[in-house]
Amino acid sequence: MARALGRVQVETAPAKLSQALSYAILPGGARIRPTILLSVAGACGDDCPAMSDAAAAALELIHCASLVHDDLPCFDDADTRRGKPTVHRAYSEPLAVLTGDSLIMLAFEILVRAGRAEDANLRAAQLVLSLSQRSGMPGGICAGQGWESEASIDLRAYHMSKTAALFIASTEMGAISAGHDPEPWRDLGALIGEAFQVADDLRDALLDEEALGKPVGQDDLHGRPNAVATLGVKGARAHLSDILAGAIASIPSCPGEADLAKMVRRQAQAIMPKLPERYQV
Amino acid sequence: MARALGRVQVETAPAKLSQALSYAILPGGARIRPTILLSVAGACGDDCPAMSDAAAAALELIHCASLVHDDLPCFDDADTRRGKPTVHRAYSEPLAVLTGDSLIMLAFEILVRAGRAEDANLRAAQLVLSLSQRSGMPGGICAGQGWESEASIDLRAYHMSKTAALFIASTEMGAISAGHDPEPWRDLGALIGEAFQVADDLRDALLDEEALGKPVGQDDLHGRPNAVATLGVKGARAHLSDILAGAIASIPSCPGEADLAKMVRRQAQAIMPKLPERYQV
């Protein structure tokens, strides 16, 4: 990420936009997507680390770009992100729009630059394809945000594009970086994405419980169906465990299969919300 | 463009965002950049028309994306574009942000798809590099817009990135599509870009004259230096002719050199503002 940034921070560039780019990506969040990507690349032998590094950085740049645009006044109108003012609050709305746009361009630029340096243009092209598909329309994160402007939402398409798309990109791009076919890796990404979605639903429900001072039921929690509304807290927790078991089972046969399964289990523990005592069996 | 759009307009996509994408690119403006790109590709032999077609569409998609974002309330707050309401007026501000983002992703996607179909991944990767560089930071159109947030503007960098960058992309990408080295083609793009800039300055000055009812002088017209402020109307007109002559002279030796010179002359006539009688010699 720092290397990617170095490329755009030159004296001839407009200074505030340069600073806003750093501000938007450093210090990072949990960097879950690049971690998954590098783990999958490692499991596939990672014969070209410069390519998987570039892929991990590009994926995280797109994720950061989407956060900057999602925080804008016309979407979430968020004041803070990762404990500091959002980009449009710290720099201005025009600079936030341009920061998102510039990060997107930079993501694609570093992929093809790495491809050129490593004589791996085919991998670079495949990475660009995966990243653009999982980010744009009709099935990427832009589509996910777009669903929020529809009167009636196709919930499966909404979750698949808004949350799962960049997790699918993580596993696909990890495989591509190491010269493997991305297709068998899609299920793992989709299942990890689904797990994050259900974990979010659970966390929201448990926070609501705390706020309301009473357990939440199986009714509609936020005017939109979610895992807890459909299955209840214990049911959603069990569903989450099932999804994660499915994710581990979906790992294609590869040299680093066992290590990758460990990584997924570790991520799973990190996202699994702790249930209050009354839900313990 | 229509083929590119077809790819994103599927039943599983959010309908309003799908419609907004069409709305943003159809019907088009003058399509000057893709015209230049295809003319350069033609002059270089255009041995892979599917690649140059994709490049022309990708370049125009990025141009359209930049118009949609530039029209947003936080930038120009424009009500109309190409004779109809701007995307954010017709669809909403969130959908306008997403339209720009989706068009950017789509541009890169169609480049690598064409590369894959034509077994021309190297060309596709080079095209992605040119387009991302000319669109992003530190020297592309994002940088150009970024300069407008600076207290003191580096005018040369501003014009180079805001106006010239996508013209440089037109000539570079035309050459790359046909398998030629892009480097010798950069000057032509930069000079055409500069010509557009001076022609714009002239047109603005002549419109101001009409509005004020008196000729404009060599003073600063809009609080920022421009060709007319520096050279006067007749001087700027002469400068524009010089730039265009330089553009034609810069055309690298290639099979279709003569036809390309004709195209540049035709474009030049189209952009050359008609001077009122008092400026005729």
Q: Could you tell me how far the N terminus lies from the C terminus of chain A, measured between alpha carbons in angstroms?
A: 45 Å
Estimated helix fraction of chain A:
55-70%
- Beta percentage of chain A is under 5%
Mean pLDDT level of chain A: 90
The domain count of chain A comes to 2
Q: Write the CATH homologous superfamily of the largest domain in chain A.
A: Farnesyl Diphosphate Synthase
Shape of chain A: globular
Oligomeric category: homodimer
Largest interface by residue count?
A: A-B, 61 and 62 residues
Which structural category fits the helices and strands of chain A?
Answer: mainly alpha
CATH architecture of the largest domain in chain A: Orthogonal Bundle
Strands of chain A, total number: 2
Number of helices of chain A: 12
For the biggest β-sheet of chain A, the strand order reads 1-2
CATH class of the largest domain in chain A: Mainly Alpha
What is the succession of H and E elements of chain A? HHHHEEHHHHHHHH
The CATH topology of the largest domain in chain A:
Farnesyl Diphosphate Synthase
Q: Which radius of gyration of chain A do the C-alpha atoms yield? A: 19 Å
Regions of chain A with pLDDT < 50 over 5+ consecutive residues? 218-222
Q: What composes the largest sheet of chain A?
A: 2 strands, antiparallel
InterPro entries (chains A, B): Isoprenoid_synthase_dom_sf (IPR008949), Polyprenyl_synt (IPR000092), Polyprenyl_synt_CS (IPR033749)
Keywords (chains A, B): Carotenoid biosynthesis, Chlorophyll biosynthesis, Isoprene biosynthesis, Magnesium, Metal-binding, Photosynthesis, Transferase
Catalytic activity (chains A, B): isopentenyl diphosphate + (2E,6E)-farnesyl diphosphate = (2E,6E,10E)-geranylgeranyl diphosphate + diphosphate
Organism (chains A, B): Roseovarius gahaiensis
